[in-house]
Amino acid sequence: MSRTWKATIATLIAMIAVPAASAQPKPVTTAEFNRYVAEAETRIQHQRESAGTFLAADSLPANERSVIQGRLRQGEIVIEKYPGTPKEISDGLIHDWTGTVFIPGATVAEVLARVRDYDHLPRYYSPDVMQSRLISQQGDDFKIFMRLRKHKVITVVLDTEYDVHYAGLDPRHEYSLSRSTRVTEIADAGTADEHPAEQDHGFMWRLNSYWAFEQVNDGVLVECEAVSLTRDVPTGLGWLIAPIVHSIPRESLQFTLNATRTAVEKRSGGTQQ
Fold first, then answer.
1. pLDDT in tens, 156-179
2. pLDDT digits (tens, 9 = 90+) for 207-227
3. What is the CATH number of the domain that holds 209?
4. Based on the structure, what is the number of domains in the chain?
5. pTM for this one?
6. Which of 22, 26, 126, 264 is deepest in the core (most CB within 10 A)?
7. Torsion angle of alpha carbons 251, 252, 255, 261, nearest 10°?
């Protein structure tokens, strides 16, 4: 490895390791994120009101839907970002990605059994999920805790909590809404001295996830739209930091959907293609 390349890597690590200006987003940043989420949830809820519009791909022309169905049945995880995102807001970026995976031979009940196993999520989603537990449940409403690991050049550990609501259009169409209520970066995680970081890196300030589970003849289509809030990109450092900040949300969604498929296939006795 050349000295120039080593110097570039060292610079990248140093830049990425610089924490954001504050431990949490500013009130104006949160307000703008909440407005975006309100509009997104209105759109998503309208989708869920009918079997014909239940998944994002249902709104595409027939030929495009057919292509996507073929890709899914070949084992691909199809991921697309929502138009206009990442969206710059005051001191932050909104990321909006939708991913879909097909789980052959599965039932909606089997998929839900995995994603709702909140006391054991590290079994299925390690290393991204380090710890998890169900805090409380009232009917179809859950409060959950997860300790997450985000790794991109450096490793960041986050303690997060969510309100999750499940609902269904009919037995073949179930969905959920998961809204983050707390995201705290943990310094010295896993040691006796671990504590909330005074300043965090801003790689994830909020994360809302909107899942849909559709039973089809040969398995289950699982869709997840993930809307997250991260730090903005410091002026002059876009070429270094932007690719990292932008890639984490997409890669996290890809990992989550693949891990969900793997967990369900193991439950049903092996991969079915």
1. 999 999 999 999 999 999 999 999
2. 999 999 999 999 999 999 999
3. 3.30.530.20
4. 1
5. 0.89
6. 264
7. -130
